Hints:
The structure holds two protein chains of two kinds.
Chain A: H1 8-52, H2 71-78, E1 79-86, E2 89-92, H3 101-108, E3 116-124, E4 127-137, E5 142-149, E6 155-162, H4 176-179, E7 198-200, E8 215-217, H5 223-238, H6 241-249
Parallel strand pairs in A: 7-8
Antiparallel strand pairs in A: 1-2, 1-3, 3-4, 4-5, 5-6
Helix pairs in contact in A: 1-2
Chain B: H1 6-13, H2 29-35, H3 39-62, H4 72-94, H5 96-111, H6 113-121, H7 128-158, E1 160-161, E2 164-165, H8 192-209
Antiparallel strand pairs in B: 1-2
Helix pairs in contact in B: 1-7, 2-8, 3-4, 3-5, 3-7, 4-5, 4-6, 7-8
Amino acid sequence: xxxxxDKNSYTILFxxxxxxxxxxxxxxxxxxxxxxxxxNERLEKQQNILYAMGVNDNEGTSANFVSTDKAPKLFKKxxxxxxxxxxxxxxxxxxxxLIDVKKEKTLAKEAGYNRRLxxxxxxxxGKTFYIAPIRGKGLWDAIWGYVALDKDMVVQGAYxxxxxxxxxxxxxxxxxxxxxxxxxxxxLDASGNFKGITVAKGNxxxxxxxxxxxxxxxxxxxxxxxxxxxxxxxxxxxxxVPYFNNLKNN
Amino acid sequence: xxxxxxxxxxxxxxPLADDNPITIQVLGICSALAITAELKASIxxxxxxxxxxxxxxxxxxxxxxxxxxxxxxxxxxxVVAALVIIVDLVLKAFAYxxxxxxxxxxxxIITNCIIMGRFEAFALANSPWRSFLDGIGNAAGYGVIxxxxxxxxxxxxxxxxxxxxxxxxxxxxxLSGLYALGYENNGxxxxxxxxxxVVGIIIWIQRSRNKALIED
Lengths: 250, 216
């Protein structure tokens, strides 16, 4: 005898029921948790920006952010100005750090769209930092980061993160041994043209003593992620060159 | 174990050794290769699978009499996927740091053949309590191998354990510990093929000690 659960009508009804139940369960979970998730992401952006300018809880060799409860206060204290560069114009905007770089990048592919470039001006112990967000592609998924520069486009600090790079290999771009290599590196070459920083294999400078070679040492086994870092630094920080030229001329 | 009958405790203990999902059933190899370059990632993956397989087995077992057999694989897939997404959302909302470490594994948990394998082979035919024990047992058996492989790969590949340098400082010019004696990390350990070789060695050792496992 055919079992009740083998009937086609039962199968279809079960499938429909399952889709409705699971669908609404997931929708409910997603929408009720969204405020918490958004808040976490907002605080993380503040922590990232602060990290790049050297405001962090680093201990030993591990990279630590300032704690989430302190982040908003410190962000207010250290970030003096948040700018949005839009074509020729530069305007202040206290919500510039919430600009979605990914969206701006996609929109910028369409002709005629003028990308909004956020830039954060931080001040710590009398030093001024210009912190710019960058975003690109790694091996598996998106990679992004924040780079703190001085007025001559010399890197003062960098923070990188990734969505899904291989643990132990590409994921190591968010380790201090890699991020700290960028400190002091020049983005411009000797004659002042924008050159970027290349994540290079076998650059004969593993201790990174040469700060004007526009190169840092790559991570073994993470070639494509490293190339992604090189590419996002080149493409995204180049856009800020006019701003820094202006800064120098005034 | 006083809490569990002999038959029940067998459900937990068997997969740890004599019926290990990785070394005997050779399931879940794909994720074992992918994520064991670091010990921490192995531990996180082991815990995630423990959670998903324990709960998933119970859910499937509760529904075992009403699941239409024609679409049972799809139903199983939907249950795993829903569980994993809920776990991911909860972590993102309440343990953001941890969720970032986990992000890579979410997709891998769904595709883990051990999970579908246990749903199909055990939970569809057994009571929720027994299914729960079976899920925990198999996930633990999987986790143990993952952690062993992760331990050796991180130690020999990067010279660290859980991120702490245990063999000294490998940076040229600041050499200390073993590195000062001329030791070098084996970068090959970080690549997936070495995970397979380490798993192979574990299988070899296990079979050489337990004659019952040797096939003619």
